[in-house]
Design goal:
Helix content: 55-70%
Distance between the termini: 90 Å
Shape: elongated
Number of strands: 0
Order of helices and strands: HHHHH
Length: about 120
Amino acid sequence: MIAIRRALALLRKVFTAHPPVPVPPRDPTRPRHNVFEAAATYVTASAEDDTDRLDDAAGWVAPDALAFGINELACRAVIALARERDEPVETVARGLLGLPGAQPARPVGPSADPGVNRPS
């Protein structure tokens, strides 16, 4: 019981010694952007080599949030492209990056083996 009181007293001392940092009020003239808007603008600006928009979008959200948004955008884009091409996601991702193993998978089944279904 005494140990709990000491721990609580220590916690009380820590929290009262370091008051919370006040958050500055939001600038009403600056538009609010979410992570996905920042990621879409950042990736678009990067693809179009627009450094001004790239720098602007990078300042809209925290760097780790921007990285998350870019990752989410990449995942969704690869999945959509794989569905459109009717190919495995890994094949599409590796193909976009120019990595080996990007060839579409060979069909499985009797028609995949050249020795099967051959006229006699």
